[in-house]
Structure formats: structure tokens, C-alpha cells
Give the backbone structure.
Amino acid sequence: MAPWALLSPGVLVRTGHTVLTWGITLVLFLHDTGYVNVLPQPQEEAKEEQTAMVPQAIPLRRCRFCMVLQPLRARHCRECRRCVRRYDHHCPWMENCVGERNHPLFVAYLALQLVVLLWGLYLAWSGLRFFQPWGLWLRSSGLLLATFLLLSLFSLVASLLLASHLYLVASNTTTWEFISSHRIAYLRQRPGNPFDRGLTRNLAHFFCGWPSGSWETLWAEEEEEERDGSSQAV
């Protein structure tokens, strides 16, 4: 094999995909998802889960499993046995939770897998030739056809997962909040999502961490805005 053959687009794509996939998977497996501290550190006396100013209608509640005070949007994961900030879901493929600190990386992982699946789908389709008789074609291209159908299924699943997470990110909500909003105290009594700040600010906060601030502060600001709007209407 000629040395320059190693620099062909196909080899570069497969190499890049392998390195990125294993790298992101390893980080998702080992990365801290944003656990709530079980024991406060001396220098963290002002941590939001300990001293956050939350309206009395939504007090911080103590987790019945690990007994920590849960900030808003946190939930206990029974698989990880920890409370996770801005809990989205527990991913069995990563054997880790998707939470406040690794959710952007999880979205990037889904996007990477979708791009590579679409690339493989294109290659499989370009290899199919339909000018041969059916029996001969099936014997020569049956495996390639099965690969194309399998890649189509995987691409559809990856597309739906990525689209659903991008929708949730754009509205600043999580999978858990979207599915169980009727069971969550700080969402059940509100007509809308109190954390939604518009598409631009939601995306900026999710991917860049801006604007920063605790969810309790945002919830309180939304509550105050609603009260001011009600008083002006009266």
C-alpha cells in the first residue's frame, strides 16, 4: 500500500471518528456530571444548596436517599447513588448520568455519531448497483443492502435523539422535567417553564455557561416579574 493511501478521506474520517468517539465516551464515563455535595466544604459555606434564597413556596427539600438538600432541578439517581444538578437522564450506554456539567458534551457526542452514520449511509448507498438481475444482485449486494438498512435505522434513532435534546436545550428544560413536569413542585404550579430566557440566552447558558447564576435566582426573578405584571394589570 502506498504511503499516501493512508491520507485518503475514508481513512481520515474513520481515524477521526474512532479517536473522537472513544475520547468523548471516556470523558462522559469518567466526568463529574455535577453532583450535589454530600458534605459542605469549609470554604463553600455559601453554596447554593445550603443558603440559596428560595421563595417559601418552593423550599429546598432533603433527598430521602442521600439526605442532602437538593437545589432546584436536581434529582437523585439510584444507579449513581448521588444527587445530580440539572438532572437530564441516566445513560446506560455511558454508565453515567447526563447532568449540568456533561450535558453539552453528550449533545456533541450525538452530533458526532449522526454525522458518521450519515457518512456511512452515503457510502453504502453509493455502493449499491441496480442494473443487475435481481437474483445476481441480491447475492452480490445483499450484505451491503442489509448494512444500508441497519445504518438507516441507526441514523433515524440518532437524529431523533439529537433533535429532542436540541429542542430541550432551546427551551432550557431537561428530559426529566419534560416527562415528569406534573410531578415536580416548581413546575406543577407554574403555567410555563420558569427557566426559559429565550432561544439565544438558553443556548448561550447551555454551551458557554453565560449568563451564570443559580436556578433558584432565576426562579425568583421569574416569580417577581409575574407579580409585577399582575400588580400592573390590576
The longest helix spans residues 134-170.
